[in-house]
Write a structure and sequence with these properties.
87% helix, single chain, mainly alpha
């Protein structure tokens, strides 16, 4: 079991590095969703299904969706100002 925990922890560590070093906000939101999935697996390995379910709902689905919607709104706003609206 300890080896499985170490593997899951290394996957989470690698995923965190990818999230930090991703430049484009839209891609960052997608990578954040994948990172949330890695955290879900990690919590399942640690035998915390309640935390894993919360992470799956919030960290994998809701947060990246909110970031993508915010990025889209900012892009629309910039386009509107550029077009003179």
């Amino acid at each position: 079991m300890t080896v499985l925990i170490v593997i899951a922890l290394l996957a989470v560590l690698g995923g965190a590095a990818v999230v930090v070093f991703t430049d484009d906000p839209a891609r960052q939101a997608v990578v954040l969703g994948v990172y949330g999935l890695l955290l879900t697996v990690f919590f399942m390995v640690l035998q915390a299904p309640d935390v894993a379910l919360s992470q799956l709902a919030v960290g994998t689905a809701v947060t990246p969706l909110m970031v993508l919607l915010a990025v889209r709104k900012v892009a629309q706003s910039k386009r509107g100002k550029r077009d003179g609206r």
